[in-house]
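Q: Here's a chain of 338 amino acids. Please give me its 3D structure as tokens.
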Amino acid sequence: MTVVFLVLVVGLASGFAFLNGFRDVSNAVALSTRTRALTPSVAVLLAGVFSFLGVMLSGSFILAFTQSWVTLPSGAGGLSMLASALVASILWGIYGWWRGIPLSSTNALVGGLIGAGTASVLVGGDSIRGFDGVILAQVVLPLLLSPVIAFVGAYLLVWPVTWAARYSQPNVVNSRFRRAQAVSAAAVAFGHGLQDGQRTAAVIVLAVVAAGLTGGDAVPLWVLLLTAVMLTAGTLFGGWRISHTLGYKLLRVDPLRGFVAQTLTSVMLFIGAIGLHLPLSTTHTLTSAVLGAGTNQRFAGTNRRLVRRILFFWVATPVVAAAAAFVLELAFSPLVRR
């Protein structure tokens, strides 16, 4: 049964990575296509290439993430928790994409693990070790603080960037920042690969360790390749519902403010992945940066109703994922303990 659950977890993690790229392609390309800095086809190809590179260069950071994260019970018990959390995350992610709402895959995955771990304890199984401290310090706080920092940072950065371009004609400013947006879009895609690729690869590494096939002191090359290929494939096949939400329905931004939002997002993703080894949501960070940069203009035109809906979904994500994973783990428990 352990082998069956291991294969199931690897397959679900691959689907999780594909859906992540499919949904989050909008994070890198929404503003660039909205301001006509890039054509949709070029933007998606650019995002795919740099997402792939980000995942492939994240190997050492994955180890730092897994070693400081959680410890799963060995055998089928730990694998069933991962499977339940992944299924819950995938289903909620599909629903969010269908509604055109940008959601955090990390929030959903963490909520799913909490729900699955609770269900395991309820039926007399093992719990996830090291979860209490790490959830607050390394997951909850970064995910809660990053949107606030992104919003305030983008709002404030608009002023010095606007001041630097004060003597240029509007058409010149737009032209220059459209070219700069191409670079910042690539940076966001690279940061997305570093951050979200880490999560998927970490799940597979945890699964292999729980199955007893490795000690977790190295990241197998096949894990990185599988994660990179699936994330890139999802990016290339990416859906545009969320991109339409960020680029057209949420508010309207010019190339200057789009560049500010993308640049700040990429810097935060790099610092979180490389410097602090903390999980930051690309979706939460970019959406908040877009709102911050877009609000700092004379005619912001923010869709407040849509903002409230997005915030509701953000709050609901870990709760819904936890509830779904709880039910799934209860369903899996007879197979695990048979």
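Q: Can you summarize the key feature?
A: The CA atoms of residues 30 and 244 lie 7 Å apart.
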